[in-house]
Design goal:
Structural class: mainly alpha
Helix content: 55-70%
Order of helices and strands: HHHHHHEEHHEEHHHHEEEHHEEH
Oligomer: single chain
Strand content: 5-15%
Strand order of the largest sheet: 7-8-9
Largest sheet: 3 strands, antiparallel
Distance between the termini: 12 Å
Number of strands: 9
Length: about 400
Amino acid sequence: MEKWFSDSLKSLDGWLEANDCRGFDPYDLLGTKFYLAVSSVSIILRDSLKKDARRLTYPFRFPAIHSPKLMRRAFRIRPQYNAKALALFARGYLNLYRRTGGKYLEKALKALEWLTKNCSRGYSGYCWGYPFDWMSRIFVPKETPSVVVSSIAANAFVDAYEILGDRKYLDVAESTCDFLLNDLNIDVVNEDMICFSYTPLDHFHVHNANLLGASLLARVYAHTKREEHGRLTEKAVRFATYHQNRDGSWYYWAPPDRLLYTIDNYHTGFNLEHLYVIKNVLKGKFCYGGNLEKGAEYYRRNLFVNDAIPKFTPRSLYPIDIHNAAQGIVTFSMLSELNPQYAKVAENIAKWTIVNMRSEDGYFYYRIYRHRIDKMPYVRWGQAWMLYALARLIDVVSG
């Protein structure tokens, strides 16, 4: 079984090497002026109707969904490097180097070098964003740093420090913590709870973004013992656990943001992954083991079919998304240290994904819909996450 996963990883690595780790993204087309306008209309309709208005704008999105290659040619969108993808490649390659040595170190260092040279400028520390404009509830220009991209990238540098021992990598990650503390809009809810904003431009309350920032602070704190990082980590965790639903789930948005309350697969996995990272750092100070265990069981029972097929939401199987599959492998691989049964779940997800979503060329498909498969090889959304996921899984299956 380990060889099967290793072979899939090697073929994916070969595909990435042939494409120089560049590619398209589900959101690069949506960052064009036309689709940004469509997104703006959808938000206005959603706010006025108080429900998801994507069906009303579906005729405009239909070509992007059903002819993704043709539409990118029409809008002259070219394959790009993506900071989040490069960070995930670095993390995956570093983990493989730790286990096997060889060529993987060179690939990891190349990705880290790209990140240091291509960070967003004008902020308190190293930080990163997306290479395209995008729309949330506000317009976010390309290269605007976010807590999500920046934390994932900085975690790659923490990995490098822990594996290679060179202080310069920890310095980059510590610098990103300065970005979190000085440039994001931190909502001090009360003396015990905080929530990090998504970008410097907004005041959003999003659970996975908040926990991503907290877990980076925790990992850096583990090495620097900078007390402020430890205190803020605990306060961000209190916010997330306080607003966790009784069944163990989390909505994507957190109060006081009164938006559509939805639960989805990979953001739930994010929350669990980073709570687990924080638990390992805080140790005895972490008082939320019950929240983590309850959340993990909700994730397993409600967001996967037969411990293998990733559902999109608790109520919807389709579309079966590669990001959900990869996050499931990552999360259950990590949580297997708490519950050995989760190792098998991670293996099951990986087996199902390799059989059903892997191309003959080695890359992974974007989505399986009820009556068709979208075979676009989105690099940041699918290939980067699967390389990182399989690299984590090999640790588990090889003991």
